[in-house]
Write a structure and sequence with these properties.
The protein is an alpha+beta fold. The chain has eight helices and eight strands.
Length: 225
């Protein structure tokens, strides 16, 4: 049902104007995080799945593996966005299924080509040549939110890349996403920089402001770490 039918002309006009303005000019703030695995072994919930009936965890590396999931009746492609293109470019999907439903997913990228396939706005700096990785594309099915699935998926991802010799992973959180920022403050992850993205028509500029050691200490104190 359209906005016009449910809310009327003025809400539709406001949303259209906001969309048009966003196409001309956008100023976005992102908070950049990293995890070097040092807090992973200290956690008491490592390897413990949430208490959700019918839960299954899978890592998908290729489209052939994705096809195999579909053949098992697991609905992966319906919810995983441009999974075919992402897998073709080397991104790996970390999935939690509940029954046949994809309940939560996150993507891990170990090359710039894989990172670009996520098509996410912040062009944050990642040194893949030094065994850094990028995590993104996180999504949780609305039916399964607030069940700890995002945290579980994230921990399984850390477990995986530590085994593969990755030294750290990085990711970005939109400055407007209050819930995600609050969750990050409790995980032991390090916020290392703030990023700004300015876009005017086809022109864009990105810069990162590293946090000082004192600012990182304050973050840790707030999180009780």
């Amino acid at each position: 049902m359209s906005i016009y039918e449910t809310e009327g002309l003025m809400p539709l006009a406001r949303q259209a104007a906001a969309f048009a303005a966003g196409r001309v000019f956008r100023y976005e703030t992102y908070y950049l995080y990293e995890n070097d695995g040092s807090s992973f072994s200290k956690r008491g919930d490592v390897g413990l799945p949430p208490g959700v009936d019918g839960l299954a965890f899978r890592v998908v590396h290729t489209n052939e593996e994705a096809d195999a999931l579909e053949a098992e009746g697991l609905r992966f492609r319906k919810y995983a966005g441009d999974a075919r293109g992402r897998l073709d470019k080397g991104a790996m999907a970390f999935c939690v299924f509940v029954g046949h439903d994809l309940a939560s997913i996150g993507w891990l990228c170990t090359t710039q080509r894989a990172k670009d396939s996520l098509n996410e706005p912040p062009p944050a700096k990642v040194d893949f040549s030094k065994k850094e990785a990028w995590a993104g594309g996180s999504w949780t099915n609305a039916r399964y939110r607030r069940m700890g699935l995002y945290r579980y998926t994230s921990l399984k991802m850390v477990e995986y890349w530590l085994q593969q010799g990755i030294v750290k992973d990085k990711w970005a959180v939109d400055g407007r996403n209050v819930a995600s920022l609050a969750a990050e403050s409790k995980t032991g992850n390090v916020r290392y920089a703030e990023g700004r993205l300015v876009r005017v028509l086809w022109w864009k500029h990105w810069w990162e402001k590293p946090l000082t050691a004192r600012e990182q200490e304050r973050d840790a104190e707030k999180a009780g770490r």
